[in-house]
Amino acid sequence: MISRPIYIEQLKNFINKPQIKIITGIRRSGKSTVLRLLKEALLSSGVREDQLISVNFESFAFSEFTSAQKLYQYVKEKIQQDKKSYLLLDEIQEVDGWEKAVNSFLVDFNTDIYITGSNSHLLSSELATYLAGRYVEIPVFTLSFREFLDFRNHYFPEEETKINSFTAYLRMGGFPVIHTVNYDEETAYKVVRDIYSSVILRDTVQRYKIREVELLERVIRYAFDNIGNPFSGKNVADYFKNQQRKTDINTIYNYLHALEGAFILYRVPRYDIKGKEILKTQEKFYASDVSLVYATMGYRDRMISGILENIVFLELKRRGFQVYIGKLDNKEIDFIAEKHGEKIYIQVAFKLESKQTVEREFSPLLAVEDHYPKYVVTMDDFWKDSIEGVRHLYIADFLLSDSL
User: Fold this and answer.
1) Consecutive 10-residue averages of pLDDT for the chain (404 residues)
2) Which of these, 80, 179, 196, 264, could form a disulfide with 151 (CB 3.0-4.6 Å)?
3) Do 76 and 194 fall within a single domain?
4) CA proximity to 372, closest of 348, 389, 387
5) Cβ atoms of residues 292 and 264 within 8 Å
6) Whether 113 and 152 share a structural domain
7) pLDDT score for 120
8) Which phi and psi (to 5°) does residue 48 adopt?
């Protein structure tokens, strides 16, 4: 296994702390591997093998654990009362009423609990009822560019010069399984389509009891086709109406809510910089991995600006930023990212091919009157000048930067 230190270091900060550690993310993003890496870290720290209780609820070996009561009984029999037990519970959402069992483990035994789940709504009302204030979320994303390079160097060291490029990452996306075998693009997209189909069926259609699967697929394709563009339910409803497919706005937002829950889409609100408030309109949606867009829509050069935005957005999320779309009078800033009271402002573009393009991308950032870092990020790697303090970076350099 290749280490993913960004997540292991976060988890290490909470080892033997009273909070339940909830590792979330889209299927096949690497949550199970992170759990195995954590197990290795625990063993290395002196925890004994008999103190670890691991259950993968997607394994047939544990298919009988369909209820919280059966899970509780199994764990109770495994726990040694005179020692701390470490519970590693993978894909917990497969167990009905799992939160009752987890709450009981916390109350009844001396335990340190780690669980994974493929639905963000694990952290919604049903969890809050039992575990309010007693859990911490560790979101796991598909591979960052830095992790992509680590994977390719590990599995294909002879191709280092050829593969270690941003273009390869741009075209293949970040699902770890894609980078453990030397797939061509067509085969890689087929693998991603299978992941996508599993997520749609198990984490969207079945969980939310969606009947109009064809309409759900249309909503997804519309969202993917409009990556980086302002989005509204009314626009989607009008689009479907023009295609003689009538639907209402509430249904569209319900489907978007389900897609967010399954980590297929991320919603990004707009923030009024002058008014210092979050706006309720013209939000944007981004995919949890750009390969999902290619697998369902095909690769299209015209989408490159939105795809680059998507990649930058995911990198900001990996680094723990709260991300917003910026509004400043009639100008838009692609991203305002906030963490620990600090901000960065980012514009993303394909290339700065003319004075007009330079003006368009730099002027919104130059209009922001504060001292926080500001970047224009593009595919241009031949000039990296700053303009009045606004830095221009090649996107690969931005993704690998340690100073964000």
Assistant:
1) 94 95 95 97 96 94 89 94 95 88 92 92 63 86 96 82 76 96 94 96 91 93 94 83 84 93 95 85 94 93 94 98 94 96 96 92 95 95 83 95 89
2) 179
3) no
4) 389
5) yes
6) no
7) 79
8) -85, 155
**Rounded to whole angstroms, how far apart are CA atoms 135 and 115?**
10
Q: Could you tell me if 260 and 365 lie in one domain?
A: yes
- 349 and 305 in one domain? yes
Sheet strands side by side (includes 374-378): 277-287, 265-272, 322-328, 331-339, 342-348, 374-378, 390-394, 386-387
The answer to whether 233 and 249 have CB atoms below 8 angstroms apart is yes
- Residue 46: domain span: 5-139
CATH number, domain containing residue 36: 3.40.50.300
291 and 329 in a single domain? The answer is: yes
Helix (H) or strand (E) segment spanning residue 348? strand 342-348
Closest CA to 335 of 228, 221, 220, 215: 228
Same domain for 44 and 181? no
pLDDT at 124: 62
Structure tokens at 27: 């299927």
Task: Name the nearest CA neighbour of 163 among 155, 152, 176.
Answer: 152
Examine the fold and report which residue of 119, 139, 159 is the final residue of a domain before the chain moves on.
139
3-state secondary structure 236-298: HHHHHHHCCCCCCHHHHHHHHHHHHHCCCEEEEEEEECCCCEEEEEEEEEEECCHHHHHHHHC
Residues 165 and 113 in one domain: no
Cα–Cα distance for residue pair 85/63, rounded to 1 Å: 22
Residue 288 to residues 53, 228, 331, 336, Cα–Cα distance (Å): 31, 13, 27, 19
Separation CA 198–CA 142 (nearest Å): 16
The neighbour count for residue 78, using CB atoms within 10 Å, is 15
Contact (CB, 8 A) for 253 and 267? no
Task: State the pTM of this model.
Answer: 0.94
Q: CA 163, CA 176: separation in Å to the nearest integer? A: 15
Question: Among 110, 139, 168, which residue terminates a domain?
Answer: 139
Number of compact structural domains in the chain: 2
**CA dist list (Å): 5 to 8, 70, 143:** 5, 34, 12
Instruction: Give me the count of residues in the chain.
Output: 404
